[in-house]
Fold this sequence. Notes:
globular
Amino acid sequence: MTIASPPNRSRHLNRAFFPAVLAIVAILSMILAAFLFQPSHDSDTLVGEAALIMLFGGALLVFAVHLNVSTGISQIFWPHFQFIAAESPLVPAKRRLVSFGVTLLVIEAEISGKGLQIGPLMRVSPWVQGGLFWSGVALVTVGMAGEAGWRWLRSIGARLRGRDPKLIALIGVALLAFGLRAWDLGGSLPISIDDGVNIPPVFPFLAEDSQIGLITSVGDYQVTPLYGQLQAIAVHLFGPTLGGIRAVNLPLGTLNVIALYVLLDALFDTNLALIGAVILTTFPPHLHFSRLAFLHVADATFGTFAIGFLARGMKYNRRADWALAGVSLGLTQYWFEAGRLYFPPLILIWLGILAIFNFGRLRSLKQGLGVFSIAALLIALPTYYAALEHHSLASPRLVASGLDFAYWQNLLLHSPLNAVITRIAQPFLVFVHTPETSLYYAGNHPMILEALVPIFLLGAFFLVRWWRNPVNILLLWLFSTAAAGLLLQDSTEYPRFIIGYPSIAGLLAVGIYYVWALLVNGFARAGGERQWIAWGTFVLVTMIATTQVNYYFGEHVPTLLREIRTRVDSPDLGDAAQRSVSFPPGTELILISNHLVDKTIIDVELTLLRWGKPSPAVTVRVLLPSEVTRNFLGSLPLDRDRAFFVEPNHPDAVKVIQSVFAVDQALYPVQVIIPNERGFVLYYAPLNRQTVPH
């Protein structure tokens, strides 16, 4: 950075001082807005006032940035994304590799779709199918990337050998991300938090069912069984436990951090990319859901890679980046419905906005955009062929959970204006105001911790100045994630926002890096800007990362578990399943409760936890306390062990059981987080003690 002579520097400082003062007023306004956005489920709070103050502070910040940029001072700090200067021919693709990869994908599409009814392809091992699919993806990627892909890999190898400090830092952040997600995976969250719905698709792979189609539709929760196969691999590695089922998200969550780094490094610079990666690594909602079996994390990971490599393509025009962007976008079609429906329109809208204001530059990249489009189609089309052959719905989850046109028509025509505004604002307020009402995440805080809300708002408004630049994707991403919630019946459940978490981390990084630079530019001594920015940023990011980790493990997880125990009426089924793992084959579980007990939940968990144990399987029966009579119990044949799990406070049912069966001493929940009054009491009746005929 060139330092101006003292007189010039003095004039520059005078011109930078006023924008810095405006920035301070903007920061104070955002702090006040964050205070008024205090967490609440009550609509009669000061949200309106907070929004007005936020807009006032945002306008001041935009004006301050405009003044600072117009002075020409410290331009090194501002977003400086530049499209490739001129059209240049891309290296040719390796067509043989692409053809071979497409052939493998076509074979897998036919195995899954069975449209042509080809005998040898009617029953193929799911592991062979996995080999076909992923080999096809790899060959298409390498072939479409051409020689540029190998150059890119060699450059990374050279940086590793040269001990590039920023690459080493990224590796350290990735290790931190993986370690935080792996720490006490099964113990700290010992119960299913709706990740149990993703357990059944694992069983066909554990059983090596050759009838399953790897890339065909499996229902509302997984658009293909691909995630189930990855979970099955994790179960083989870590065992048939909740921790094993969840382990698949450890690498996926870590890859999402790396994907955000790729994106921010392309849009801004390496320093900001590392900041964003650290923030996403420790961002509590992202940390939470990538420790559970939520396949939305796969959507976010491949979607972020698609945007990141697309930005790199526009910046460097390298075939490898265009190919990786297309392959990543194609892979968003294989996990949950959010990725399938969200990322293609988001990228099309982004490119459309860029084309309006940068048409000439995008036109010079038409060859790269063609590579991107072809790669995306080659990867995505196989699953659509399989879905069409099976007449699967394109969006079954949206059909089940979405709102129709009549809802919004009725709301707009027959509701007062404040009700309309409140409904529209709901998905936007989860970022800064509304804690989750459901039990996926719950807690007492909004998605972004209150202390970080001012930084988030500053980052968002800072980028308004560059709304015609590719960096606008962060704002477009955030806004569209919330707007997509308006299509759903419940627009405040946090899993629906997982696809947008990287944009939140990116905006927080922008707020830290650039707003701090704006202040330093106005007040720092001549020549000391770099040092002030570096140390100030390091301290702030360290504090934020530490605060988020301490909050998640120290406050949020215990709070979530307490809320689940308090708000769920029926006793814990997961605990009953875990206590039944060691029962002899054929044992019958009899659950006795006045509450509605979902037998499917315990069936699924038992099937997983007892996978590989000798047959016959443990069976489950559900009874009301009033159904526990001497006549009924006496009619049960003495041919197996029985385990009576009785809801607390039903002494009459217990007396009847004890009068008919010789049972062991009452056993209470094994998990210390479950109070005795919230868990089933176990009365075990082993077959070898039932000597008296009934």
